[in-house]
Write the C-alpha cells for this entry.
Amino acid sequence: MIGAGGSGLAAIKNFKQHGFDVDCYERETGVGGAWNWRHDRSPVYASTHLISSKPFTQFPDFPMPDDWPDYPHHSRLLAYFERYTDHFGLREHIWFGTEVVKVVPTNEDDPNTSWDVTVKGVRGGSEKTLRYAAVVVANGHNWAPKLPSYPGLDTFQGTVLHASAYKDAAQLRGKRVLVVGAGNTGCDIAVEGAQQGARCWHSSRRGYWYAPKYAFGKPADQVNDRVLGLGVPLKIRQWLFHFTMRLTVGDLQRFGLPKPDHKIYETHPISNSQLVYHVGHGGITPVPDIERFDGNQVVFTDGSTADPEVVVLATGYLPRFEFLAPRLYGGDDRGRPHLRWQLFSPAHPTLSFVGLVQPDSGIFTICHWQSELAAAWLRLNDTAPDRASAWWRKAVEPGGKYSDADVKDSSRHWLEVSHWVYLKALERALKSLERVPA
Ligand SMILES: Cc1cc2nc3c(=O)[nH]c(=O)nc-3n(C[C@H](O)[C@H](O)[C@H](O)COP(=O)(O)OP(=O)(O)OC[C@H]3O[C@@H](n4cnc5c(N)ncnc54)[C@H](O)[C@@H]3O)c2cc1C
C-alpha cells in the first residue's frame, strides 16, 4: 500500500482480512492523510468540516459515533481514522516517514506481474527495493496544487497563495481578499473572506448551483439519496432539485451570481449554505474570470477591476504519481489517468488505485468496496489463477462511465463518479468474480 490516509487504511484492513501480508508506506508520521492537519501537505484549514454528511462518508463496517454532528470537524475525522487504525490493528503494518519513489513491474508482459517497490526514508538514508506480489496506490489526489497562470501575475505585489497554503481565517483578517474558484474550498474561503476580510471578491469562470447543506431539515445528500432510492430518473431528479433550489435559495442571478450554464449533477456538487447569504449581505462581491493582473489591480473578463491585498487560488488539485510510468495508470498527455473500474491499472490487475475517485458523496464507503474488489481478485489469483485471468479478460465494465449525468469536460471532473452508479458497478464486479467459472 502506498499511503495511510482513509483509502490506504481501508485497503490495509481489507487485504489483511483476505489473508494477505501487508506493508504500507506512508511518507508522513501519522495516519489520516489529508485529514491530518499536522501534515505539511494536508489541504484542510482550521474551519474545515465534512461536506458530505456522516453516514455517506464513513466506512460501512465502522460507523462514526452517534453523538457526532452531521458534518464533523476535520479534527474528528482524524480521531475517526486513528480509532479505525487501532480497532483493526493496522498500525503494525505501516512504515511511517517512508516515501515510495519508484514502482516497476518485474515482467511488463505478464498481466499478473509482481512489482519492485523502491522506498526511502524522508529524513534521508539509502533507498531500498523490495518485491511485492501486488501494489495498491492510495496516495490521494488533493495535495498537488493545480495552478493557473495569468498575464501580469508576476508584477502583483500582494500575497498570492494556493488554497493548500490557506490554514486559518487570520490570513485574511482586515485584508482585501480575492478568492479564485468556486469549488467547495473556494466557497468556504470566500465566506471566511466575507467574515474576516475588509472586502471579498469571489471569481468564478461559470455560474454554479450552490446547494444548501440542509434541505427539509436533513443533510441535503441524505434527501438526495432518498429520492435516488425511489428510482427517480435523472431528468426528474434535476427538475426536483431546481424546484427545491427555487423554493429555498431562490434565483441566484438576483444575488448577482452568474446563471449556471449547466444542469445540476453536470458539475461536482457544491454544498454551502453561507455563500449566497454573504453575497446577499454584501460581504462577497461575485466577479467573473480573471483576464490579467495590471500592477496591483486585477482586471476581470467583463472589464471590472479589484485591488486585493491577498489572492487565494482555490483552483483545485491534480492527481500525481511520480513513482509510476504513465502507461501503468493509462495516463494521457494531460496526465489524466484511465483505469479499469476506475480502480485497476489497464494492463495489470496486480496494480490498483484506491480512492482515485471524486464522488458526489463521501469517499470512504467507496474506498472500502474498491479495496474489497482488488483484494478479492488477488485472492482468486492466488487460489485459482486461471479463473482470475479469465475474469480479467472477460469481465465487462459499463463503458467506463460512472456518472448518469453529462459531466462537464474539465480536469476538475477527471475522477468524478456518481456514488450510486459506481457502487453498483463495483457490486456487479464483485458478484461476477464470485461466479466466474473454472
Ligand atoms: C477541504 C477539503 C474538504 C474535503 N471534504 C470531503 C468530504 O466532506 N467528504 C469526503 O469524502 N472527502 C472530502 N475531501 C476529499 C479528501 O481528499 C478525501 O476525504 C480523503 O482525504 C481521501 O483519502 P485518501 O487516503 O485517498 O488520500 P489522502 O487523505 O490524501 O491520503 C494519501 C496519503 O498518501 C500519502 N502518500 C502520498 N504519496 C506517497 C508516497 N509516494 N509514499 C508514501 N506515502 C505517500 C500521503 O502522505 C497521505 O497520507 C475533502 C478534501 C478537501 C481538500
